[in-house]
Amino acid sequence: MAQPKYITDIDKLAAIPEDERRRLKRITEKFVFRVNDYYLNLIDWNDPEDPIRKLVIPNEGELLEYGRWDASDEDTNYVVPGCQHKYRSTALLIVSEVCGAYCRYCFRKRLFRADVKEAMSDVEPGLRYIAEHPEINNVLLTGGDSLILATPKLRSILERLRAIPHVKIIRLGSKLPVFNPMRIYEDEALLETIREHSTPEQRIYVMAHINHPREITPEAKRGFEALHDAGAIVVNQTPVLRGINDDPAVLGELLDKLSWAGVTPYYFFVNRPVAGNSDFVLPLERVYRIVEEAKARTSGLGKRVRLSMSHTSGKIEILAIESGKAYLKYHQSRDGAYGTFMILDCPKEAAWFDDLPGNEKYWKKPAKRTDAVVSVNELPDVPRPARIAK
After folding, report:
1. What is the mean pLDDT of the chain?
2. How many other C-beta atoms lie within 10 A of the C-beta of residue 224?
3. 279 touches 242 (CB < 8 A)
4. How far, in Å, CA of 2 to CA of 212, rounded?
5. pLDDT band at 202, cuts 50/70/90?
6. In a 10 Å sphere around its CB, with 0-12 CB exposed, 13-18 middle and 19+ buried, how is residue 104 labelled?
7. Residue 134 has pLDDT above 80, yes or no
8. What is the rounded distance in angstroms from the CA atom of residue 84 to the CA atom of residue 356?
9. Residue whose C-alpha is closest to residue 232's, from 210, 202, 256, 268
10. What's the CA gap between 91 and 85, in Å, rounded?
């Protein structure tokens, strides 16, 4: 199958009525718009509520005042330009500000503004930092989308990381396994690069971003198989998104199809309160119920997934929400509070950890760790409303 054609001008989408395109144009002037014809063919244009459409086509809710640009305070995790070190054993290299798909719910929406420069074309400072810190045994290449990098560029980064003895795991964060699977299975140089650098002792993991079961097409499954054959391990993470996958039947089907394709269900995330994302946010109690009902529909393989909030202070697993109480645990912690168990009141409208009364007892906002970071620090945040739509 030929590589798909990319589209960055919403006026080129004749399936959208002209008056609607005119309204959406002003959104694309603020946030980048980028799709391809392969993915567009997954949309049912006769259904205005089509979930695939909502994933990539701008919505007017993006201009509402809601949330913060950096809802998890990633600016406090930078140790050198382009490299974050929040958890002891894990480092993030922000290698790309470009995505194959610009998902409208993206928690790094700030990256896709023209006035922000956060990814670094020069990853040398990050590679030096990782080499100097033997506690780092796994590195996530992210952005943006790590598989949007040209294969020679990706190979050069992997070669440098594999020259660091203490880096055992390399993770590639990407939407391309379902947005442009041909980029994977038609690029033998990419597959050979993965084959050379993913060994039984030092694996490459592909962290796929699959949000809906309809994204798992025959082409996507061919891409998964190519990655498996090259020695990569593919796992999946997705937020639970209002209007897209907030249905136990849909999430249950996603868990089944992932398991059948050999893709490990890894995380369901609570959608972060990011500026421009109000249309996708759900109350915590509703998210928990959806996930539990979805897990009840699938096998033990699907039930491996964890429901978490990727908060400033760490990954907070939602164990249960019952009778107005949230039962939580630090699944990962920037301050060493791993395993801390929390019971907090959970108001019906609560949509994030910060919305739970008493949360401040368990963490404090960290100071910025370096001044060589990102222009996002100068972006004005927009206030969160007291309530969200249910």
Report:
1. 90
2. 24
3. yes
4. 24
5. very high
6. buried
7. yes
8. 27
9. 202
10. 5
